[in-house]
From TrEMBL:
Record's signal peptide: none
Pfam families: Gp53-like_C, Phage_tail_fib
InterPro entries: Gp53-like_C, Phage_Tail_Fiber_Structural, Phage_tail_fibre_N
Domain called Phage tail fibre protein N-terminal: residue spans: 6-152
The protein, known as: Phage tail protein
Domain Putative tail fiber protein gp53-like C-terminal stretches: 432-511
Organism: Pseudomonas gessardii
Amino acid sequence: MIDANSQFFAILTNVGMAKQANADALGIPWKFTDMGVGDANNTDPIPSAAQTRLINEWRRRPLNQVWVDPVNPAVIIAEQIIPADEGGHWIREIGLYDADGDLVAVANCAPSFKPVLSQGSGRTQVVRMNFIVSSTGNITLKIDPAVVLATREYVDQRIMEELYKLDNKQSVRVATTANIALAGLLTVDGIVLAAGDRVLVKNQNVAKDNGLYVAAAGVWKRTEDADTNAEVTSALLVSVEQGTTLADTRWQLVTDGVIVLGTTALTFQNVTQGFAAINSPAFQGLPTAPLAPRFDSSQLLATTEFVQKALGSFASGRDEAGTGLTLPLSDVGGFTSLMAGGAQTVALPLLNLVPDGAAIILHNPTGYNKSITINGGNRISPDGQLYTVVNLSPGDTAHFTKQSGVWRMHGAGALKYSAQFAASLASSGYQKLASGLIIQWGSISVVASSSDQTITLPIAFPGAFHSVVATSDYTLTSGVVGTVSTNTNGSLASFIIRCSQGTSTRWIAIGK
Protein backbone atom coordinates (compact mmCIF):
# COMPACT_ATOMS: atom_id res chain seq x y z
CA MET A 1 0.00 0.00 0.00
CA ILE A 2 1.35 3.41 -0.98
CA ASP A 3 2.12 5.64 2.03
CA ALA A 4 4.65 8.17 3.25
CA ASN A 5 7.31 5.45 3.48
CA SER A 6 6.92 4.19 -0.08
CA GLN A 7 9.99 4.47 -2.33
CA PHE A 8 9.92 5.26 -6.02
CA PHE A 9 12.95 4.65 -8.20
CA ALA A 10 14.22 3.51 -11.61
CA ILE A 11 16.84 0.83 -12.31
CA LEU A 12 18.47 -0.84 -15.28
CA THR A 13 17.22 -4.36 -15.91
CA ASN A 14 19.66 -7.22 -16.23
CA VAL A 15 19.32 -6.90 -20.01
CA GLY A 16 19.95 -3.16 -19.73
CA MET A 17 23.06 -3.64 -17.56
CA ALA A 18 24.44 -6.19 -20.03
CA LYS A 19 23.88 -3.84 -22.96
CA GLN A 20 25.46 -0.96 -21.00
CA ALA A 21 28.53 -3.09 -20.33
CA ASN A 22 28.68 -4.19 -23.96
CA ALA A 23 28.42 -0.58 -25.15
CA ASP A 24 31.21 0.51 -22.78
CA ALA A 25 33.51 -2.38 -23.66
CA LEU A 26 33.04 -2.50 -27.43
CA GLY A 27 32.00 1.06 -28.15
CA ILE A 28 28.76 -0.11 -29.74
CA PRO A 29 26.12 2.66 -29.83
CA TRP A 30 23.07 2.04 -27.68
CA LYS A 31 19.84 3.85 -28.48
CA PHE A 32 16.66 4.22 -26.43
CA THR A 33 13.49 4.48 -28.53
CA ASP A 34 10.23 3.79 -26.65
CA MET A 35 8.57 4.14 -23.27
CA GLY A 36 5.77 2.00 -21.90
CA VAL A 37 3.42 2.70 -19.00
CA GLY A 38 1.23 0.26 -17.10
CA ASP A 39 -1.12 -0.06 -14.14
CA ALA A 40 0.64 -3.15 -12.63
CA ASN A 41 -2.82 -4.74 -12.32
CA ASN A 42 -3.58 -2.13 -9.64
CA THR A 43 -0.78 -3.40 -7.37
CA ASP A 44 2.12 -1.42 -5.95
CA PRO A 45 5.07 -2.69 -8.02
CA ILE A 46 8.70 -2.80 -6.93
CA PRO A 47 11.12 -2.55 -9.88
CA SER A 48 13.18 -5.71 -10.41
CA ALA A 49 16.32 -6.07 -12.50
CA ALA A 50 15.04 -9.44 -13.66
CA GLN A 51 12.01 -7.93 -15.40
CA THR A 52 11.72 -8.32 -19.15
CA ARG A 53 8.31 -6.68 -19.39
CA LEU A 54 5.94 -4.55 -17.33
CA ILE A 55 3.33 -6.26 -15.17
CA ASN A 56 0.42 -4.84 -17.16
CA GLU A 57 1.47 -2.42 -19.87
CA TRP A 58 -1.40 -0.46 -21.46
CA ARG A 59 0.55 1.98 -23.63
CA ARG A 60 3.91 2.01 -25.46
CA ARG A 61 4.99 4.86 -27.73
CA PRO A 62 8.22 6.44 -29.06
CA LEU A 63 10.06 8.78 -26.69
CA ASN A 64 9.39 12.47 -26.80
CA GLN A 65 12.97 13.29 -25.81
CA VAL A 66 15.94 11.83 -23.96
CA TRP A 67 18.87 13.74 -22.48
CA VAL A 68 21.63 13.69 -19.89
CA ASP A 69 20.82 15.49 -16.64
CA PRO A 70 22.86 18.75 -16.82
CA VAL A 71 23.42 18.56 -13.03
CA ASN A 72 24.43 14.88 -12.86
CA PRO A 73 26.09 13.47 -16.02
CA ALA A 74 25.50 9.89 -14.79
CA VAL A 75 21.72 10.34 -14.92
CA ILE A 76 19.74 9.91 -18.12
CA ILE A 77 16.27 11.44 -18.35
CA ALA A 78 13.73 9.86 -20.73
CA GLU A 79 10.43 11.57 -21.42
CA GLN A 80 7.14 10.65 -23.04
CA ILE A 81 4.01 12.76 -23.44
CA ILE A 82 0.56 11.15 -23.30
CA PRO A 83 -1.95 13.34 -25.18
CA ALA A 84 -5.34 14.30 -23.79
CA ASP A 85 -7.27 11.83 -25.96
CA GLU A 86 -5.47 8.75 -24.53
CA GLY A 87 -5.94 7.30 -21.06
CA GLY A 88 -8.61 5.90 -18.82
CA HIS A 89 -5.97 3.94 -16.89
CA TRP A 90 -3.74 4.22 -13.83
CA ILE A 91 -0.01 4.74 -14.20
CA ARG A 92 2.00 2.81 -11.60
CA GLU A 93 4.91 1.42 -13.61
CA ILE A 94 7.16 2.74 -16.39
CA GLY A 95 9.44 0.86 -18.78
CA LEU A 96 12.17 2.04 -21.16
CA TYR A 97 12.87 0.09 -24.36
CA ASP A 98 15.85 0.24 -26.69
CA ALA A 99 16.03 -0.05 -30.48
CA ASP A 100 15.98 -3.86 -30.20
CA GLY A 101 12.66 -3.74 -28.33
CA ASP A 102 14.22 -4.95 -25.07
CA LEU A 103 13.11 -3.61 -21.68
CA VAL A 104 16.34 -2.00 -20.44
CA ALA A 105 15.07 0.11 -17.52
CA VAL A 106 12.05 -0.11 -15.24
CA ALA A 107 10.58 2.26 -12.66
CA ASN A 108 7.62 2.56 -10.30
CA CYS A 109 5.83 5.81 -9.59
CA ALA A 110 3.18 7.24 -7.34
CA PRO A 111 -0.17 6.09 -8.75
CA SER A 112 -1.59 8.60 -11.18
CA PHE A 113 -4.86 8.24 -13.04
CA LYS A 114 -4.70 9.42 -16.67
CA PRO A 115 -8.20 10.50 -17.68
CA VAL A 116 -9.46 11.02 -21.23
CA LEU A 117 -11.44 13.92 -22.65
CA SER A 118 -14.70 11.97 -22.58
CA GLN A 119 -14.45 11.90 -18.78
CA GLY A 120 -14.51 15.68 -18.67
CA SER A 121 -11.01 15.94 -17.21
CA GLY A 122 -8.69 15.15 -20.08
CA ARG A 123 -5.14 16.45 -19.84
CA THR A 124 -1.80 16.08 -21.55
CA GLN A 125 0.51 14.22 -19.18
CA VAL A 126 4.31 14.15 -19.14
CA VAL A 127 5.93 10.94 -17.89
CA ARG A 128 9.66 11.02 -17.10
CA MET A 129 12.10 8.36 -15.95
CA ASN A 130 15.44 9.27 -14.35
CA PHE A 131 17.93 6.42 -14.07
CA ILE A 132 21.63 6.09 -13.35
CA VAL A 133 24.15 4.58 -15.78
CA SER A 134 27.85 3.98 -15.39
CA SER A 135 28.68 5.98 -18.54
CA THR A 136 26.78 7.91 -21.21
CA GLY A 137 29.69 7.80 -23.67
CA ASN A 138 28.17 5.23 -26.03
CA ILE A 139 24.50 5.94 -25.42
CA THR A 140 22.86 7.58 -28.44
CA LEU A 141 20.53 10.29 -27.19
CA LYS A 142 18.49 10.78 -30.34
CA ILE A 143 14.77 10.68 -31.02
CA ASP A 144 12.64 10.70 -34.16
CA PRO A 145 11.48 14.34 -34.54
CA ALA A 146 8.40 13.14 -36.44
CA VAL A 147 6.89 11.67 -33.25
CA VAL A 148 7.79 14.42 -30.78
CA LEU A 149 4.97 16.15 -28.93
CA ALA A 150 6.56 19.22 -27.41
CA THR A 151 5.79 20.58 -23.96
CA ARG A 152 5.80 24.32 -23.33
CA GLU A 153 8.99 23.90 -21.30
CA TYR A 154 10.65 22.06 -24.18
CA VAL A 155 9.57 24.66 -26.74
CA ASP A 156 10.75 27.53 -24.55
CA GLN A 157 14.07 25.82 -24.02
CA ARG A 158 14.58 25.12 -27.72
CA ILE A 159 13.64 28.68 -28.68
CA MET A 160 16.19 30.08 -26.24
CA GLU A 161 18.85 27.66 -27.45
CA GLU A 162 18.36 28.79 -31.05
CA LEU A 163 18.18 32.48 -30.13
CA TYR A 164 21.42 32.16 -28.21
CA LYS A 165 23.11 30.88 -31.38
CA LEU A 166 22.29 34.07 -33.31
CA ASP A 167 25.23 36.36 -34.02
CA ASN A 168 23.23 39.44 -33.06
CA LYS A 169 23.22 39.34 -29.26
CA GLN A 170 21.17 41.16 -26.66
CA SER A 171 22.77 44.52 -25.87
CA VAL A 172 25.14 45.02 -22.93
CA ARG A 173 24.99 47.87 -20.43
CA VAL A 174 28.69 48.75 -20.76
CA ALA A 175 31.89 47.64 -22.48
CA THR A 176 35.33 47.53 -20.93
CA THR A 177 38.11 49.90 -21.95
CA ALA A 178 40.94 48.11 -20.12
CA ASN A 179 41.81 44.80 -18.45
CA ILE A 180 39.58 44.12 -15.41
CA ALA A 181 39.14 41.54 -12.68
CA LEU A 182 36.18 39.39 -13.65
CA ALA A 183 34.61 39.59 -10.20
CA GLY A 184 32.76 42.13 -8.06
CA LEU A 185 30.53 45.10 -8.83
CA LEU A 186 33.11 47.29 -10.58
CA THR A 187 32.96 50.66 -12.24
CA VAL A 188 33.35 50.16 -15.99
CA ASP A 189 33.62 53.09 -18.42
CA GLY A 190 32.25 55.41 -15.75
CA ILE A 191 29.23 53.23 -14.90
CA VAL A 192 28.84 51.56 -11.49
CA LEU A 193 27.64 48.05 -12.24
CA ALA A 194 24.69 46.32 -10.58
CA ALA A 195 24.30 42.58 -10.20
CA GLY A 196 22.90 41.11 -13.39
CA ASP A 197 24.29 43.80 -15.74
CA ARG A 198 25.55 42.47 -19.05
CA VAL A 199 29.11 43.54 -19.88
CA LEU A 200 31.20 43.27 -23.05
CA VAL A 201 34.69 42.31 -21.88
CA LYS A 202 37.11 42.99 -24.76
CA ASN A 203 40.39 44.26 -23.32
CA GLN A 204 41.68 41.40 -21.19
CA ASN A 205 45.44 40.81 -21.13
CA VAL A 206 44.64 37.16 -21.89
CA ALA A 207 42.33 37.50 -24.90
CA LYS A 208 40.73 34.08 -24.40
CA ASP A 209 38.91 35.61 -21.40
CA ASN A 210 37.16 38.22 -23.56
CA GLY A 211 33.44 37.80 -24.22
CA LEU A 212 30.03 38.62 -22.78
CA TYR A 213 29.64 38.43 -18.98
CA VAL A 214 27.04 39.00 -16.26
CA ALA A 215 28.26 41.23 -13.44
CA ALA A 216 27.98 39.76 -9.93
CA ALA A 217 29.20 40.46 -6.41
CA GLY A 218 31.31 37.31 -6.72
CA VAL A 219 32.95 35.73 -9.73
CA TRP A 220 31.39 36.70 -13.06
CA LYS A 221 29.93 34.12 -15.41
CA ARG A 222 29.56 34.32 -19.15
CA THR A 223 26.04 35.27 -20.32
CA GLU A 224 23.66 32.43 -21.19
CA ASP A 225 23.58 33.52 -24.85
CA ALA A 226 27.39 33.41 -25.15
CA ASP A 227 28.63 30.64 -22.86
CA THR A 228 29.08 27.78 -25.37
CA ASN A 229 31.10 27.34 -28.57
CA ALA A 230 27.94 27.21 -30.69
CA GLU A 231 26.84 30.60 -29.36
CA VAL A 232 30.14 32.45 -29.85
CA THR A 233 31.00 32.52 -33.54
CA SER A 234 32.82 34.85 -35.88
CA ALA A 235 30.84 38.03 -36.71
CA LEU A 236 28.99 38.07 -33.35
CA LEU A 237 27.49 41.55 -32.90
CA VAL A 238 26.54 43.39 -29.70
CA SER A 239 25.45 46.96 -28.93
CA VAL A 240 26.57 48.99 -25.90
CA GLU A 241 23.91 51.05 -24.11
CA GLN A 242 25.87 53.26 -21.68
CA GLY A 243 29.37 54.45 -20.84
CA THR A 244 31.44 57.61 -20.76
CA THR A 245 33.30 56.74 -23.97
CA LEU A 246 31.54 53.76 -25.54
CA ALA A 247 27.82 54.51 -25.14
CA ASP A 248 25.76 53.74 -28.27
CA THR A 249 28.57 51.86 -29.99
CA ARG A 250 28.40 48.52 -31.74
CA TRP A 251 31.06 45.80 -31.62
CA GLN A 252 31.75 42.78 -33.81
CA LEU A 253 33.77 39.65 -33.04
CA VAL A 254 36.39 39.46 -35.80
CA THR A 255 38.06 36.23 -34.72
CA ASP A 256 37.73 33.91 -37.71
CA GLY A 257 37.61 30.13 -37.83
CA VAL A 258 36.44 27.64 -35.22
CA ILE A 259 36.20 29.18 -31.75
CA VAL A 260 36.71 27.16 -28.57
CA LEU A 261 35.39 29.29 -25.74
CA GLY A 262 37.99 29.80 -23.01
CA THR A 263 40.80 28.73 -25.34
CA THR A 264 40.57 30.84 -28.50
CA ALA A 265 41.66 34.49 -28.26
CA LEU A 266 38.62 36.72 -28.95
CA THR A 267 39.02 40.08 -30.69
CA PHE A 268 36.23 42.65 -30.92
CA GLN A 269 36.17 45.57 -33.36
CA ASN A 270 34.16 48.78 -33.23
CA VAL A 271 31.82 48.76 -36.23
CA THR A 272 29.54 51.60 -35.15
CA GLN A 273 30.46 53.51 -38.32
CA GLY A 274 30.79 50.35 -40.38
CA PHE A 275 34.06 49.72 -42.19
CA ALA A 276 33.90 52.94 -44.22
CA ALA A 277 34.01 56.58 -43.15
CA ILE A 278 30.26 57.20 -42.92
CA ASN A 279 29.25 60.10 -40.67
CA SER A 280 25.56 59.25 -40.47
CA PRO A 281 23.08 56.74 -41.91
CA ALA A 282 22.79 59.04 -44.96
CA PHE A 283 25.87 59.21 -47.20
CA GLN A 284 27.47 62.63 -47.32
CA GLY A 285 29.73 64.31 -49.84
CA LEU A 286 30.48 62.32 -52.99
CA PRO A 287 30.71 58.66 -51.96
CA THR A 288 32.01 56.18 -54.50
CA ALA A 289 31.82 52.42 -54.88
CA PRO A 290 33.47 49.75 -57.04
CA LEU A 291 32.07 49.41 -60.53
CA ALA A 292 30.00 46.23 -60.84
CA PRO A 293 30.96 43.92 -63.75
CA ARG A 294 29.33 44.60 -67.09
CA PHE A 295 25.97 42.77 -67.47
CA ASP A 296 25.79 42.06 -63.71
CA SER A 297 22.20 41.63 -62.46
CA SER A 298 22.86 40.78 -58.81
CA GLN A 299 22.32 42.97 -55.72
CA LEU A 300 25.73 44.65 -56.00
CA LEU A 301 25.69 48.42 -55.57
CA ALA A 302 25.04 50.21 -58.87
CA THR A 303 27.17 53.30 -59.47
CA THR A 304 26.18 56.12 -61.80
CA GLU A 305 28.73 54.78 -64.30
CA PHE A 306 27.10 51.34 -64.24
CA VAL A 307 23.62 52.85 -64.65
CA GLN A 308 24.86 55.08 -67.48
CA LYS A 309 26.01 51.98 -69.31
CA ALA A 310 22.95 49.92 -68.51
CA LEU A 311 20.11 52.37 -69.10
CA GLY A 312 19.34 55.63 -70.89
CA SER A 313 22.44 56.83 -72.76
CA PHE A 314 24.63 54.44 -74.68
CA ALA A 315 27.49 52.99 -72.71
CA SER A 316 30.01 54.44 -75.18
CA GLY A 317 30.35 56.07 -78.56
CA ARG A 318 33.24 55.81 -81.01
CA ASP A 319 34.31 55.69 -84.67
CA GLU A 320 35.71 52.56 -86.27
CA ALA A 321 37.63 52.91 -89.56
CA GLY A 322 39.22 49.47 -89.64
CA THR A 323 38.02 46.65 -91.82
CA GLY A 324 38.22 42.87 -91.56
CA LEU A 325 38.18 42.98 -87.76
CA THR A 326 35.96 41.72 -84.92
CA LEU A 327 34.34 44.48 -82.89
CA PRO A 328 35.47 44.40 -79.22
CA LEU A 329 33.17 43.41 -76.36
CA SER A 330 33.36 47.00 -75.07
CA ASP A 331 31.22 48.08 -78.05
CA VAL A 332 28.27 46.12 -76.63
CA GLY A 333 25.81 48.64 -75.22
CA GLY A 334 27.53 51.43 -77.16
CA PHE A 335 27.10 53.38 -80.40
CA THR A 336 29.74 52.70 -83.07
CA SER A 337 30.02 54.54 -86.39
CA LEU A 338 31.68 52.69 -89.29
CA MET A 339 33.84 55.41 -90.80
CA ALA A 340 36.06 53.72 -93.42
CA GLY A 341 36.24 55.80 -96.60
CA GLY A 342 35.06 52.94 -98.79
CA ALA A 343 33.59 49.49 -98.47
CA GLN A 344 34.04 48.14 -94.95
CA THR A 345 33.51 44.73 -93.32
CA VAL A 346 33.37 44.12 -89.55
CA ALA A 347 32.36 41.08 -87.46
CA LEU A 348 30.08 41.20 -84.43
CA PRO A 349 31.44 40.04 -81.02
CA LEU A 350 31.11 36.36 -80.16
CA LEU A 351 27.63 35.58 -78.88
CA ASN A 352 28.83 33.40 -76.01
CA LEU A 353 30.55 36.44 -74.46
CA VAL A 354 27.35 38.45 -73.99
CA PRO A 355 24.08 37.73 -72.16
CA ASP A 356 20.63 37.66 -73.72
CA GLY A 357 19.31 41.19 -74.25
CA ALA A 358 22.75 42.75 -74.74
CA ALA A 359 22.86 44.99 -77.82
CA ILE A 360 25.38 46.69 -80.09
CA ILE A 361 24.35 49.68 -82.23
CA LEU A 362 26.06 50.32 -85.58
CA HIS A 363 25.72 53.39 -87.82
CA ASN A 364 26.87 54.01 -91.39
CA PRO A 365 27.30 57.78 -91.84
CA THR A 366 29.37 57.41 -95.04
CA GLY A 367 28.42 57.12 -98.68
CA TYR A 368 29.63 53.54 -98.91
CA ASN A 369 28.01 50.21 -98.12
CA LYS A 370 29.15 48.40 -94.98
CA SER A 371 29.08 44.63 -94.51
CA ILE A 372 28.33 43.18 -91.07
CA THR A 373 29.44 39.60 -90.73
CA ILE A 374 29.71 37.01 -87.96
CA ASN A 375 32.44 35.61 -85.76
CA GLY A 376 32.46 31.86 -85.18
CA GLY A 377 29.05 30.18 -85.02
CA ASN A 378 27.04 33.40 -84.76
CA ARG A 379 24.08 34.11 -87.01
CA ILE A 380 22.22 37.34 -87.83
CA SER A 381 18.45 37.40 -88.16
CA PRO A 382 16.82 40.61 -89.43
CA ASP A 383 13.64 38.94 -90.69
CA GLY A 384 13.36 35.51 -89.06
CA GLN A 385 15.85 34.03 -91.55
CA LEU A 386 19.52 33.43 -90.68
CA TYR A 387 22.27 35.31 -92.48
CA THR A 388 26.05 35.25 -92.28
CA VAL A 389 26.35 38.75 -93.80
CA VAL A 390 24.02 41.75 -93.77
CA ASN A 391 24.57 45.17 -95.33
CA LEU A 392 24.20 48.70 -94.00
CA SER A 393 23.44 51.20 -96.74
CA PRO A 394 24.63 54.81 -96.44
CA GLY A 395 22.78 56.49 -93.55
CA ASP A 396 21.53 53.21 -92.04
CA THR A 397 21.52 52.53 -88.32
CA ALA A 398 20.93 49.01 -86.99
CA HIS A 399 20.65 47.42 -83.54
CA PHE A 400 21.98 43.90 -83.05
CA THR A 401 20.54 42.26 -79.90
CA LYS A 402 21.45 38.80 -78.65
CA GLN A 403 18.37 36.63 -78.28
CA SER A 404 17.89 32.86 -78.44
CA GLY A 405 21.39 32.22 -79.74
CA VAL A 406 21.37 34.71 -82.64
CA TRP A 407 21.93 38.41 -83.25
CA ARG A 408 18.45 39.87 -83.85
CA MET A 409 18.80 42.81 -86.23
CA HIS A 410 16.33 45.67 -85.97
CA GLY A 411 16.13 49.37 -86.72
CA ALA A 412 16.21 51.32 -89.98
CA GLY A 413 19.02 49.22 -91.40
CA ALA A 414 16.91 46.07 -91.08
CA LEU A 415 13.91 47.41 -93.00
CA LYS A 416 15.17 46.27 -96.37
CA TYR A 417 15.18 42.68 -95.05
CA SER A 418 11.56 42.91 -93.90
CA ALA A 419 8.88 41.18 -95.97
CA GLN A 420 7.00 44.50 -95.99
CA PHE A 421 9.91 46.09 -97.87
CA ALA A 422 10.88 43.15 -100.07
CA ALA A 423 12.29 44.16 -103.41
CA SER A 424 13.89 42.96 -106.61
CA LEU A 425 16.08 45.63 -108.16
CA ALA A 426 16.60 43.94 -111.53
CA SER A 427 15.67 45.63 -114.83
CA SER A 428 12.26 44.05 -114.38
CA GLY A 429 11.58 44.24 -110.65
CA TYR A 430 9.41 45.44 -107.81
CA GLN A 431 9.42 47.26 -104.49
CA LYS A 432 6.99 46.54 -101.65
CA LEU A 433 6.09 49.29 -99.17
CA ALA A 434 4.91 48.99 -95.56
CA SER A 435 1.47 50.37 -96.51
CA GLY A 436 0.94 47.36 -98.81
CA LEU A 437 1.50 49.33 -102.00
CA ILE A 438 3.63 47.53 -104.61
CA ILE A 439 5.46 49.26 -107.46
CA GLN A 440 6.65 47.13 -110.40
CA TRP A 441 8.56 48.00 -113.54
CA GLY A 442 9.98 46.53 -116.75
CA SER A 443 10.37 46.94 -120.50
CA ILE A 444 9.55 45.22 -123.77
CA SER A 445 11.65 45.52 -126.90
CA VAL A 446 10.47 46.17 -130.43
CA VAL A 447 6.75 45.71 -130.23
CA ALA A 448 5.11 45.37 -133.59
CA SER A 449 3.09 48.36 -134.56
CA SER A 450 -0.52 48.27 -133.40
CA SER A 451 -0.19 44.73 -131.99
CA ASP A 452 -1.27 43.61 -128.53
CA GLN A 453 1.42 42.23 -126.25
CA THR A 454 0.78 40.47 -122.91
CA ILE A 455 3.33 41.49 -120.24
CA THR A 456 3.75 39.21 -117.19
CA LEU A 457 4.53 41.10 -114.00
CA PRO A 458 7.60 40.12 -111.92
CA ILE A 459 5.15 39.20 -109.13
CA ALA A 460 1.37 39.01 -109.05
CA PHE A 461 -0.42 41.73 -107.09
CA PRO A 462 -1.98 40.04 -104.06
CA GLY A 463 -5.10 42.22 -103.94
CA ALA A 464 -5.60 44.70 -106.75
CA PHE A 465 -4.03 45.98 -109.99
CA HIS A 466 -4.51 49.76 -109.80
CA SER A 467 -2.84 51.15 -112.93
CA VAL A 468 0.00 50.81 -115.40
CA VAL A 469 1.80 53.51 -117.37
CA ALA A 470 3.93 52.84 -120.44
CA THR A 471 6.18 55.05 -122.51
CA SER A 472 7.87 54.26 -125.78
CA ASP A 473 11.50 55.02 -126.34
CA TYR A 474 11.84 58.36 -128.02
CA THR A 475 14.26 59.32 -130.76
CA LEU A 476 14.59 62.86 -131.92
CA THR A 477 12.02 63.87 -134.59
CA SER A 478 10.57 60.35 -134.62
CA GLY A 479 7.26 61.44 -133.23
CA VAL A 480 6.80 58.09 -131.61
CA VAL A 481 3.87 57.93 -129.18
CA GLY A 482 3.06 54.81 -127.18
CA THR A 483 -0.38 53.84 -125.91
CA VAL A 484 -1.47 51.20 -123.47
CA SER A 485 -4.68 49.41 -122.58
CA THR A 486 -4.58 49.08 -118.73
CA ASN A 487 -5.12 45.55 -117.52
CA THR A 488 -7.88 44.81 -119.96
CA ASN A 489 -7.47 41.07 -119.35
CA GLY A 490 -8.46 41.49 -115.66
CA SER A 491 -5.40 39.61 -114.44
CA LEU A 492 -3.41 40.50 -111.30
CA ALA A 493 -0.29 38.95 -112.81
CA SER A 494 -0.19 40.50 -116.28
CA PHE A 495 -1.46 43.28 -118.52
CA ILE A 496 -1.80 43.98 -122.29
CA ILE A 497 0.18 46.69 -124.03
CA ARG A 498 -0.15 48.08 -127.58
CA CYS A 499 2.19 50.52 -129.27
CA SER A 500 1.29 52.64 -132.27
CA GLN A 501 4.62 51.99 -133.89
CA GLY A 502 7.28 49.31 -133.53
CA THR A 503 9.54 50.50 -130.70
CA SER A 504 10.91 49.58 -127.28
CA THR A 505 8.53 50.42 -124.44
CA ARG A 506 9.07 50.86 -120.68
CA TRP A 507 6.28 50.48 -118.11
CA ILE A 508 5.46 51.05 -114.42
CA ALA A 509 2.57 49.22 -112.72
CA ILE A 510 1.05 50.02 -109.30
CA GLY A 511 -1.11 47.72 -107.20
CA LYS A 512 -1.46 46.16 -103.79
